[in-house]
Write a structure and sequence with these properties.
three-stranded antiparallel β-sheet; alpha+beta
């Protein structure tokens, strides 16, 4: 057996035991701790082990970043589109109408994105099929409970991790690594939060005894332990405050959060969380001075492109596969409500499009939820449109300048 254990600990299996250590067929019944990286002894010693979902979401900036990312995507409506790019009217029932029994679609997709954000992937178990043999309802599985194990395949020039295709199970992978892998930054937030609460509650970082005079009242450490420390500990267990005997003085060091720069350290830790999630640090209550957005719509569009887009594209691509959508149909999020213009800008845009004969008045009314009137478009002076657009730009610039000031 020496060759076997030598192979296990060296990573180079002995030829005699090579077959015993060869990769086996994919299994769907394994310890989730093995799959999701159970902390090792070094992780516990150096506190670098993967943190849990509950620990992460107890951190206010992480919770806020989760709400901004997952909540925003959850409110977008998912729609099916046919081969011509038009909303599919003949594919009903479908998975988007009510993905989970008894839950609103926004709740399901918010939790799916949360799994992708924290754990890198989400799992959906088939619950019901429709007449078209496509899944119409699912159950979202808790990522910590899933026991699907990836298979490592080895080739002459490298290896690859392959996830097995499990029947009746939909795996949605995130293009980004899980947020829980950024444990040190989140642990720093937890530690600083605890330190701030200790300062508020008056809990000192450390306390000690000193001689109340020039002479040491104890002959040795054992004497101090027997006559002072043990009775003191017993007294503290019985009541909130221990009795300090004559000859010693109990010293409680002062703790000044401002001098210890706790505020600055917490802001730095929050900024690290902002970097991990891609959220603007100002959204997590850290004041910043630079701003590159012209208005709220530009800011939201930038967030979709840089932060929300990777998760949305991954979900759209997975739900457009043939096991969920008919061949040729695609799934896509509708972000029109999130990127809608204010009333003045929308009216000016409609006027420009009507003048350019891209829209007619009835189409513009339908966009606003109004009944069409069947009226012809009135001639519009391009100079008036230019003046209106310039005035709108000036107003937005003035608002942005006032906000920065």
């Amino acid at each position: 057996m020496a060759g076997f254990w030598r192979g296990v600990f060296s990573g180079r299996p002995d030829p005699v035991f090579a077959d015993a250590l060869a990769p086996t067929a994919p299994s769907v019944s394994v310890d989730p701790g093995v799959l999701y990286g159970a902390p090792t002894l070094d992780d516990y010693i150096f506190r670098t082990g993967r943190i849990t979902r509950a620990e992460a979401l107890r951190v206010p900036p992480v919770k806020r970043a989760r709400d901004l990312i997952c909540g925003a995507i959850g409110q977008f409506a998912l729609r099916f589109y046919d081969q011509n790019g038009k909303p599919a009217e003949n594919f009903s029932p479908n998975l988007f109408q009510q993905p989970e029994p008894g839950l609103a679609p926004s709740v399901t997709w918010t939790r799916v994105v949360e799994d992708m954000l924290l754990f890198e992937r989400s799992w959906l178990q088939h619950h019901a099929l429709g007449w078209h043999n496509r899944v119409v309802q699912v159950h979202r599985l808790e990522p910590e409970s899933v026991t699907v194990q990836p298979e490592y395949r080895y080739f002459p020039h490298g290896s690859v991790k392959v996830w097995p295709e499990v029947p009746d199970l939909i795996r949605v992978d995130s293009p980004n690594t899980g947020l829980l892998d950024g444990g040190p930054a989140i642990r720093a937030c937890i530690a600083l939060e605890r330190a701030a609460l200790n300062a508020v509650d008056g809990a000192p970082p450390i306390a000690f005894f000193t001689p109340d005079g020039d002479a040491d009242p104890f002959e040795s450490t054992a004497d101090a332990k027997a006559r002072l420390l043990d009775p003191w500990e017993e007294s503290r267990r019985d009541r909130s405050t221990g009795y300090v005997p004559a000859g010693v003085k109990y010293v409680i060091p002062s703790w000044d959060p401002e001098k210890l720069q706790l505020a600055e350290a917490r802001e730095f830790a929050i900024t690290e969380v902002a970097r991990l999630t891609g959220i603007d640090a100002e959204e997590l209550s850290v004041s910043t001075t630079s701003r590159t957005y012209f208005n709220a719509q530009d800011r939201r569009r930038q967030r979709i492109e840089d932060v929300l887009g990777p998760y949305m594209t991954a979900i759209e691509g997975r739900l457009s596969m043939d096991d969920v959508s008919p061949h040729g149909y695609t799934a896509a999020f509708d972000t029109s409500g999130y990127l809608r213009l204010d009333d003045l800008s929308a009216a000016q845009t409609d006027a420009v499009l009507i003048s350019a004969k891209v829209l007619d008045p009835d189409e513009a009314r339908v966009k606003r939820g109004l009944e069409p009137r069947g009226e012809q478009a009135a001639p519009v002076d391009p100079a008036e449109i230019g003046t209106a657009v310039a005035a709108s730009v000036a107003v937005e610039a003035a608002k942005e300048g006032a906000r920065r000031g």
